[in-house]
Amino acid sequence: xxxxxxxxxxxxxxxxxxxxxxxxxxxxxxxxxxxxxxxxxxxxxxxxxxxxxxxxxxxxxxxxxxxxxxxxxxxxxxxxxxxxxxxxxxxxxxxxxxxxxxxxxxxxxxxxxxxxxxxxxxxxxxxxxxxxxxxxxxxxxxxxxxxxxxxxxxxxxxxxxxxxxxxxxxxxxxxxxxxxxxxxxxxxxxxxxxxxxxxxxxxxxxxxxxxxxxxxxxxxxxxxxxxxxxxxxxxxxxxxxxxxxxxxxxxxxxxxxxxxxxx
Length: 263
Known about the structure:
alpha/beta; 6 helices; seven-stranded mixed sheet
């Protein structure tokens, strides 16, 4: 399995699937290379490889992987996205799968503050890096998969709340006056509530990493992030604004497309 993302998720995959070898192409050097004392390299089936950006070829031979995971890439140029899709196909074995998770720059159900914030973000990105693609990446990626010859595309669009919490599907299903929780049920319910409250925070973190990181200081200072505007968060919660997330996977054909010449 090849992943192209931050280090925590692929390391968790390596722990969850001990019989699979996980290669993580990361913009950060491995912990051992940095002289750190972290445990990120302790899993025997985990390999972290320094890969600075999507414009560079993947350091693997053709048909090396059964699966490639492309997860929340930082905003880049059209050419870089196309090259990454092409390289993913090259290193996949016939019948292998490419899994992709991306967030769009525009959000759903935006109010006036959100529209202004996103519009200013687009202007700043264009001024700083005029080659960056500001098109909806969810549509762009699906077109690129088709043009690169991937098959059996399966996709799902998910709305992730910007503020507030995810609605609890169990709300109202039980009469609290007639139901007494035991300690185990209380603990489980509190855990579920923690997850539903955390989802918007994680969504904002991923959005900032994908679209604000080229504009923020290298030390990770988030003081200039659009999410520091409390009025914006209140508006998003009131209007139920959500991030537009694409989850999809596609398959490399088992046999290459044969080109014939008509006579």
